[in-house]
Amino acid sequence: xxxxxxxxxxxxxxxxxxxxxxxxxxxxxxxxxxxxxxxxxxxxxxxxxxxxxxxxxxxxxxxxxxxxxxxxxxxxxxxxxxxxxxxxxxxxxxxxxxxxxxxxxxxxxxxxxxxxxxxxxxxxxxxxxxxxxxxxxxxxxxxxxxxxxxxxxxxxxxxxxxxxxxxxxxxxxxxxxxxxxxxxxxxxxxxxxxxxxxxxxxxxxxxxxxxxxxxxxxxxxxxxxxxxxxxxxxxxxxxxxxxxxxxxxxxxxxxxxxxxxxxxxxxxxxxxxxxxx
Length: 277
Description:
Blueprint: E1 14-15, H1 23-54, H2 72-120, H3 131-168, H4 173-213, E2 218-222, H5 232-239, E3 243-245, E4 250-252, E5 255-257, E6 268-273
Antiparallel strand pairs: 1-6, 2-3, 2-6, 4-5
Helix pairs in contact: 1-2, 1-3, 1-4, 2-3, 2-4, 3-4
């Protein structure tokens, strides 16, 4: 139960501005992920090339089986396993600190923005790290840790497939290098998606927890106005100025959801301060 409940000084409801994700924190988080991915991809490219040149698969004797110890295929497979273990460990070690920084920074910026919006609306509040807000923060951190750790796992699986298929199909090193570059692009795009998606979710969940802390029970759905492929039902909800229960979510297309909850959703909420009756 909220310890306080904001009320408009008049009979009219007050609709406040929405809290949007902090673009600077999102951009810095994305750059950190991209830098880690670039280092990982460069390592795979270097050591794969070195192993390939040391014993080119195409020069192996016809009688040499791919699964024999010392064969080119076995050497590349061993190199892949070594690289996979190395980079999985590095991402696992970096994930907790990076996720904690990102979630904490986003929570602080969202809270400060909400405080300013309330102050501009004539309300002075003092926020603390309540148990509910901390629970949301820790949940965000946990989700981001898992997403960061999944990056080298997926990259390794794809790259290992590219290399081993290259061996079995008789491709040259140039073709393998092109495959690695393609997978780097795929992984970078996934990192961009993670940064955007997690910024939206972190901002939305912290803002909702703060709204609940203040006893705000209603909000209005607002579409971001951005994105190349906006969801028609989200746009319609925004145009209709759909009011929804902050504790329950908005009923859109048959399900209760919150702004920023779905992948790539940049929608936000405009909290409603009710007038006295």
